[in-house]
Specification:
mainly beta; Immunoglobulin-like; 2 domains; 1 helix; 20 strands; about 5% helix; disulfide bond; Ig-like_dom
């Protein structure tokens, strides 16, 4: 038999609850876990599995306007997620096995990042032909963040270097990106650093330097 313990939680700006609290099922059975949140603007939903004595493991994410995206090792055939409304979401786990008995399932909050742009140092401007701008996105959760540079309203990829993965800082994450531009161009442009918690999500925060 598989014993699952979905855990309710409270997110920032939203109340989140899951039920049933405890589930006892036989191997081969299916089980459905319900989630409710009372914040109508919370478009994204992330489902996590919590193995014993380990951190959360992302299984699937989705939004009100996009298809569910499953992490490696997980599929819709096993973990079916349906969003009945903005407030109600349910996950059905099919063909239960002992591996599904992993302490709990959690539908977690989304925390948008704080974003800041740091201008080139005077020393770099004086001594080098290129100037480096640094964009720091911090305090966000979960760790799936996309960062885009725009210069004078146009997306910029040349000269951009972004960390391969987010850095964990306690319960949140940070991500750094650098934009190198010709020194003469760095003084006469409008630079914008935009972030989003999914490649299809609208910008959640931004900062600008001129």
């Amino acid at each position: 038999a598989a014993w699952l313990s979905p855990r309710p939680c409270v997110g920032i700006g939203a109340y989140i609850a899951q039920w049933p609290e405890k589930i006892l099922k036989r191997a081969g059975d299916s089980v459905t876990i319900f989630c409710y949140q009372n914040y109508s603007n919370l478009a994204y939903v992330f489902w996590y599995q919590q193995p014993p004595r380990n951190g959360l493991k992302l299984v699937v994410s989705g939004s009100t306007w996009s298809r569910n995206s499953y992490e490696d090792g997980y599929s819709e055939a096993k973990f079916e997620v349906n969003r009945e409304s903005t407030e109600y979401t349910l996950m059905t786990i099919k063909n239960l096995t002992p591996k599904d008995e992993r302490g709990g399932w959690k539908n977690d909050e989304i925390i948008p990042p704080a974003v800041a742009i740091f201008s080139p140092s005077k020393q770099e401007i004086q001594q080098k032909s290129k100037a480096t701008l640094v964009c720091l996105a911090s305090g966000f959760y979960p760790d799936h963040l996309t960062l885009v540079w725009r210069v004078n309203g146009v997306k910029r990829t040349e000269g951009v270097g972004t960390d391969e993965s987010s850095t964990r800082n306690g319960s949140t994450y940070s991500l750094t990106s650098r934009l190198r531009m010709p020194n003469k161009s760095s003084r006469s442009y409008s630079g914008l650093c935009k972030t989003s918690l999914s490649s299809t999500h609208k910008a959640t925060d931004n900062n600008e330097t001129k």
